[in-house]
Amino acid sequence: MKVNLGVLSLFVALVGVSSFIFLVVAIATDFWYIIDASKLETSRNGTDALSSHSGLWRTCRVRNECYPLINPFWHENANITDSHRQLLYMHGTFVILMPLSLILMIFGGMTGFISILARAYLLLLMTGLLFLFGALVTLTGISVYIAYSAAAFKEAVCLLRSKDLLVEIDIRFGWSLALVWISFVAEVLTGAVFLLAARVVGLKQRREQAL
After folding, report:
1. How many Cα atoms are found within 13 Å in the side-chain-facing hemisphere of 204?
2. What is the rounded distance in angstroms from the CA atom of residue 143 to the CA atom of residue 58?
């Protein structure tokens, strides 16, 4: 089966741009983690806004303003427990990894554009590996965030000292995290297509050398 490099180029451009846009939107929005306490608010006659949704940088109340999360990089001298310190380390980790993945995609996009125009085998290969490495960074960030959310929930339960209230609270991951998963899949697909394009160019160069 003959693979057309032009079709591959168009496909990889669409998928790569989609991956970048999904990740930008996910990082910029505040619906990674959602706490729906509407049942609890109803039982308390709705006097307090308990529901919230959180992103990488801040937490927002449903009917109030957003406020930033604790800076994870300025806690060395703070009087906090070891569990809180671990949460801050985890927070700092995924706050670094997600923008790093964006930076890798930007570099990958530039090298990919040049490699497609030049039909350069090594540059196509390097771009594919760069996108796959970026996907690994994204997956690591997602994994750390999920572990962070589980640890934060466990810490909140310990502080609450009452599991009865949890029955009236719905806690779930939001659509921002779903966008990151879509971006990750698109990033892997982009890297794989670049590797396929490198193979196509490499085979074509070998055929031309054999003639």
Report:
1. 13
2. 19
- Chain-centre distance for alpha carbon 167: 30
Check: pTM over 0.90? Answer yes or no. no
**In degrees, to the nearest 5, what angle opens at C-alpha 35 toward C-alphas 32 and 39?**
155
Note whether 63 and 49 are within 8 A (CB): yes
Q: How confident is the model at residue 211 (pLDDT cuts 50, 70, 90)?
A: low
pLDDT tens digits for range 152-184: 877 766 766 656 666 667 788 899 999 999 999
pLDDT, tens digit, 9 for 90 and up, residues 118-156: 989 999 999 999 999 999 999 999 999 999 888 887 776
Measured distance CA(140)–CA(148) in Å, rounded: 12
Contact residues for 195 (Cβ-Cβ < 8 A; gap 6+):
124, 125, 128, 129, 132
One-letter amino acid for residue 53 of the chain: H
Tokens representing 37? 């306490």
Which residue(s) pair with 170 in the sheet?
A: 36
User: Token pair of 118, please?
Assistant: 């030049």
- Compute the distance between CA of residue 205 and CA of residue 211 in angstroms, rounded to an integer: 10
Give the span between the Cα atoms of 151 and 32, in whole angstroms. 15
Side-chain-facing half-sphere of 144: CA atoms under 13 Å? 20
Q: Contact 165/40 with Cβ under 8 angstroms?
A: yes
Q: What is the DSSP string of 117-161?
A: HHT-HHHHHHHHHHHHHHHHHHHHHHHHHHHHHHHHHHHHHHHH-
